[in-house]
Amino acid sequence: MKYSASCHCKKINIEVEAPERLTVQECNCSICRKTGHLHLIVPRSHLQILSGAESTTLYQFNTKVARHYFCRHCGVKVFYVPRSNPQGYSVNARCLEPVPDMTVETFDGRNWEDNAHTLSHLTPDPDATDNKP
Length: 133
Prior knowledge:
By secondary structure, the protein is mainly beta. The chain has one domain (2-122): Beta Complex (Metal Binding Protein, Guanine Nucleotide Exchange Factor, Chain A), CATH 2.170.150. It has helices at residues 30-35, 112-115; strands at residues 2-6, 13-17, 22-27, 38-43, 47-51, 56-59, 67-71, 79-81, 88-92, 96-97, 102-107. The protein has a seven-stranded mixed beta sheet, with no helix packed on it. It has a four-stranded antiparallel beta sheet with strand order 5-2-1-10, with no helix packed on it. Strand 6 (56-59) and strand 7 (67-71) form a beta hairpin. The longest helix is centred in the first third of the chain and has 6 residues, at 30-35. The two termini are 21 Å apart. The mean pLDDT is 90.
């Protein structure tokens, strides 16, 4: 099924392919807890940026593997390249329109090193290595 997502000001618009019934992760790491990102992790080939790539600004910290893209106008993070799945994207399920039916699972990102492997199955797209939007 195809979903649409956008930032608050609608400058960034994406389309994402995912199951009709979604399972998303709520992470308790420092950045996810503060931004409220609900993770819908998909292979890179399942996300298309329709407009607004030029409106993104990049934030990285610590290992710099994760690539957090925020709208430089409204500050909303619609998607990013997660450290746990650098060959895919994590779409903020809170940005999907209309809000789909979803199950929210907790993910212990505070203890990331011990738990990251539990997410690796979500992006089985080995041909995608470029992690730019």
